[in-house]
Design brief:
394 residues; alpha/beta; 2 domains; globular; binds pyridoxal-5'-phosphate
Length: 394
């Protein structure tokens, strides 16, 4: 007898079936994007949105920057991929672009594919070099969703999503140096922190805190890891947060805007740590692939050539001053284009009305804090347009 084939979801149209084939991992905004240019994205109906979210801090040079798109297209036509068993000029140039902009002694780059993978490897490097197993992280921190990185999440709801957690993670309050001093005993391999805690609602700490952490790590033989997945590559108005306040960590993790949207992560390490790594101990198939490296090299070049660090500093001032004049805004936290807008009311309805008006902004772990993570190419005119809309909405 002939078996009858029954479609799994017979009532769905083709478009609906495509959507239903995706695991629903995120709560989606009610918009289907089709294209982007600079700081603007357009939906399928042609409606424009000014993007102050940057695809979650990824669109560093803006959407489809012509130089980045050209570098990607040329590389795709030349050599789309080869693994780390061969040398490639484009990978060497990308590593130089990343390490060459970092303060000494940060000098060597291990390419991976995402922020979480960068943090996994940074913790592993620190454990191996110190021979210790524990990691000290900060309440409120977020470092990714793979096993070790999510176990280092200071936001407990993420740790709870990934039970059982990797053992050996301990937490103290961000900004509390005395607590770090108490927790940093001889079992701690590394202190891991976001220098500006983004997801937690854009929390900052004074320079003395970072100086204190550096001193404690040096005194007690632990390594200092900055998770610069968000703060790196110009977002806070300097190329890296590392080096500020005279503090240079031993390891820096990067991702998000590093290749303007082509998936890439990196661990930037000091000479001392680099000297302990032997071939075959660390690896990844796709990390350091030529396509991502071409995009990263072009991203770094565009940041320099277009003076984007200065533009971020000026734009951030303009945004902050404009927002602080709006009565519904209690205060603005953060630096550069990593800003948290603390409202006198829940942020979600504000975000929804802004979206309907054609402006994309992010939320945070705190209901009353909206996050602005725009492309570094955002212009003064665009900032003014956003400020006018924001004032009207609140
Ligand atoms: N670290 C920080 C500070 C992040 O904000 C994120 C992602 O939001 C990650 C790490 C994880 O990066 P990825 O999603 O690329 O794994």
């Amino acid at each position: 007898m002939k078996a009858e084939s029954t479609p799994l979801t017979p009532a769905l149209s083709r478009g609906e079936r495509e959507e239903s084939a995706e695991l629903p991992t995120y709560t989606r905004w009610p918009v289907t994007l089709a294209r982007g240019k600079g700081s603007t994205v357009w939906d399928e109906a042609g409606k424009a949105y000014l993007d102050l979210y940057g695809g979650h801090a990824v669109a560093a040079t803006g959407h489809c920057h012509p130089e980045v798109a050209r570098a990607i297209a040329e590389q795709a036509k030349t050599l789309l991929f080869y693994s780390n068993v061969v040398a490639m000029r484009v990978r060497t140039r990308a590593a130089e672009a990343i390490a060459g902009r970092a303060p000494a002694p940060l000098s060597k780059v291990f390419f991976v594919n995402s922020g979480t993978e960068a943090n996994e490897n940074a913790m592993r490097l620190a454990r191996r070099v110190t021979g210790r197993s524990n990691i000290l992280s900060m309440h409120g921190g977020f470092h990714g969703r793979t096993a070790d990185a999510i176990s280092a999440a200071g936001l407990q709801k993420y740790r709870d999503l990934a039970r059982p957690n990797v053992p050996g993670h301990r937490f103290v309050s961000f900004g509390d140096l005395a607590a770090a001093e108490r927790a940093l005993d001889g079992s701690v391999a590394a202190v891991l922190l976001e220098p500006i805690q983004s997801m937690a609602g854009v929390m900052t700490a004074p320079g003395s805190y970072f100086e204190g952490l550096r001193r404690l790590c040096d005194e007690r033989g632990a390594k200092l890891i900055y998770d610069e997945v968000q703060t790196g590559f110009g977002r806070t108005g300097t190329f890296y947060f590392s080096g500020r306040h005279g503090v240079v960590p031993d390891l820096v993790t990067l991702a998000k805007g590093i290749a303007s949207g082509v998936p890439m992560g990196a661990v930037l390490v000091s000479e001392e740590i680099a000297a302990t790594v032997k071939p075959e101990e660390y690896g990844t198939t796709f990390g350091g692939g030529p396509l991502a490296c071409a995009a990263a090299e072009a991203t770094a070049r565009v940041i320099d050539e277009e003076g984007l660090l200065e533009k971020v500093q000026a734009g951030s001032k303009r945004l902050r001053e404009g927002l602080e004049k709006i009565t519904a805004v209690r205060r603005v936290r953060g630096e550069g284009y990593l800003l948290g807008v603390v409202l006198d009311r829940p942020g979600k309805p504000v975000r929804e009305v802004l979206l309907a008006k054609g402006f994309l902004v992010g939320g945070s772990d705190l209901p009353e804090v909206l996050r602005l993570l725009p492309p570094l190419v955002l212009t003064g005119g665009e900032i003014d347009r956003f400020l006018a809309a924001f004032a009207e909405v609140v």
